[in-house]
Amino acid sequence: MISLKFRRYAAGVAISMLACATSAVAAYPEQTITLIVPFTAGGTTDQAARLVAQLLQASTGASVVVENKPGAGGMIGAQHVKKAEPNGYTLLYGSDSLILQPLVQKSALTSIDDFIPLVRVRTSPTYMGVGPAAPVNSVKELVALAKSRPGKLDYATGGVGEVNHMSGAAFALAAGVDIVHVPYKGVLPAITDTAAGHVAIVWGGSIDFLPYLKTGQLKVLAQAGTKRSLAMPEVPTFTELGYPDVVIVNWNGILAPKGTPPEVVKWLTEKIAAVATSPEFLERGKILAIEPGDMLKGQAFADALAQQQARYKTIIAKSGIRLVD
């Protein structure tokens, strides 16, 4: 009799707990959703995140805020989300750094495996430009110049192991040229030095190049996207120019900590995907080079990240890029 009573009591408790959990999920979101941007405020990544937050709040009625936690190549913000309670109220607005940093940094704080990919909201190709130290007008001419001066031409990027570094390394492998990587502490100083003639080649985003294109100090020869971009439709892709292996697309997407309830993951994925494909997002996102067709959600997003990770591992291995402290 005691055993029967205990079993009935235990069953009642389990049902009660399940009902409470279901109720809690059904009520989501009851609190403010915080979108962590692991970079400084004001940049393209931050602006895109704020646009997502604004439209998500407008479309769902949920309270959504953006908080910047920069540092360690995006790892400080990512670690903050990793350690947060997995309840759907602290999310990461991630980028390629989440894949790249663990591949090149011995002290990386977290990795893509610590998160559930929800929605990829935008992509942006990297662009290759040249300055006065490389007096050429096409990729063909640049390759010829590099082959005539092995080990003498250099290319600047925003740092070791960031997406522009991967682009330069991929180009060197595909073109079969010996060019030297010069890492800077950020893309802007890299572009400034290239425009001044101190470095031959530079990699960056479309917005980074614009001021120097107007003055003629830099030329953009090609971009590493899968298609021509709305930002610079006149710039050909490397694939068009005969280098299909030079496809490096930086991404921004929203991820949740591992352990977030499936029902919350589903709600977030559906609502964010709706925002990322809305006419308002695409129209207002033009200035941020947000393109139609960028959105991937759920497993499709996770598969794309896995493919990109494998691609980066190959580039790093073939280029001999070493782990740094």
Question: Could you describe the 3D structure shown?
Answer:
This protein is of the alpha/beta class. 44% of the residues lie in helices and 18% in strands. α2 (44-60) packs across α9 (262-276), α4 runs parallel beside α11 and α6 (163-175) packs across α11.
Descriptive terms for the model:
325 residues, D-Maltodextrin-Binding Protein, domain 2, 2 domains, 6-stranded mixed sheet, 5-stranded mixed sheet, 44% helix
Q: Which percent band covers the strand fraction?
A: 15-25%
Secondary structure: number of strands: 11
Strand order of the largest sheet: 2-1-3-10-4-11
| Sequence stretches where pLDDT stays below 50 over 5 or more residues | 13-24
* CATH fold title of the largest domain: D-Maltodextrin-Binding Protein, domain 2
- Helix segment count? 11
User: So, the CATH homologous superfamily of the largest domain?
Assistant: Bordetella uptake gene, domain 1
- What shape does the CA trace take? globular
What fraction, in percent, of the residue positions are helical? Answer: 40-55%
